[in-house]
Write a structure and sequence with these properties.
This protein is α/β, with parallel strands linked by helices and about 170 residues long. It contains five helices and five strands.
Length: about 170
Amino acid sequence: MTDATQLTDEYWMQFAYEQAAIAASKQEIPVGAVIVSQNKIIGAGYNAPISLSDPTAHAEVQALRQACAHLNNYRLPDDSVLYVTLEPCTMCVGALIHARVSRVVFGATEPKAGSLVSARRLFETGYYNHVFAFEQSVLHSECSEQLSLFFKMRREQKRQQKLQEKALNDQG
């Protein structure tokens, strides 16, 4: 990867990171995504399965929906790049294949559900009618820390809730 490509990837990943912050503010797992074509964001999204009661409302799918609606086409342009703060899962990789994204750039790896380099390496296991290039670890530290802080906060909230429940039970 050239220095210019790395700087470009970091630039656009900042926008995905901002989308992830929106997800966190809504108590969703902080994952954000943007799709870029011709040096413009054509789709953006953040994780929203809880608030939308939709298990498919991952950041990547939300960004795909917005980009495809913007283009009035279910296929993305040849130069389209998805920037996402967390390695895509199997469902999202499938959606990205069908949409014909040309490249995926992600921040943090996902050891349990990541489907490009972690838990599964889908492109190594079979034939696909479209394969995209991918780059990992762009703004890795920032993306990983955002997720870690979110889960730390969530654990603390659960701990506080248990303490409050115990205090109420002890009073009653």
